[in-house]
Amino acid sequence: MGPAGDGSAGDEAAGERTVRVVLVDDHRMFRTGVQAEIGVTERTGVEVVGEAADVDQAITVITATRPEVVLLDVHLPGGGGVEVLRRSATQMADPERPVRFLALSVSDAAADVIGVIRGGARGYVTKTITGKDLVDAIFRVADGDAVFSPRLAGFVLDAFASTDAPPVDEDLDRLTQREREVLRLIARGYAYKEIAKQLFISVKTVESHVSAVLRKLQLSNRHELTRWAAARRLV
């Protein structure tokens, strides 16, 4: 395992080899930007064979294309990156043609990183990564390496250093994946209507999730919820 960030990847790194990749991110403009940055196969050795904007689309595209690497955003409509990993367990375990996952997210929250790594992702890099370093990370993950942005590697190692350590926050474990998504958006100041639009659910459903989160965490209002989330670096 090593950091992604030495800038060593480049045109010459790919050689004649091609790695087939699927992009999973709910922001179309971001997917377009990544495609433009790394998807010129002749230059990078990366062939983007599919894209998806939510969990269901991701499973459909991954099943249809069987890529070598999936670039996976953590926060997705339909259950998040962890749900994609859960539903891709068979493909990940295939001894002949394993599908490997590299999380690519704006979030550097410990809970997000640990969640997807425990779910089976081979690495986690943030969206500040350069195009060359991302290509390098893709090739390394395709080869079975584990790759992390430098500042994330430390607490990943800490989290896995002791089998006696709890895998994740026990309070956070009480929440479903969708409740965690709503929690983070509430803590970031989103209105119920904005959350509903982003997650493709109704405002009433958002309200139900917020009520469930407050009840499970024994909190009284969204202000307490925001403080709770900030203390755990979930915002």
TrEMBL record:
Keywords from the UniProt entry: DNA-binding, Phosphoprotein, Transcription, Transcription regulation
SUPFAM superfamilies: C-terminal effector domain of the bipartite response regulators, CheY-like
Keyword tRNA-binding listed: no
4-aspartylphosphate PTM sites in chain numbering: D73
Start and end residues of each Response regulatory domain: 20-142
Tree of life domain: Bacteria
Keyword NAD applies: no
Domain HTH luxR-type, residue spans: 168-233
GO molecular function: DNA binding
GO BP of this protein: phosphorelay signal transduction system; regulation of DNA-templated transcription
SMART domains found in the cross-reference section: HTH_LUXR (SM00421), REC (SM00448)
Name under which the protein is recorded: Response regulator transcription factor
Organism field: Streptomyces benahoarensis
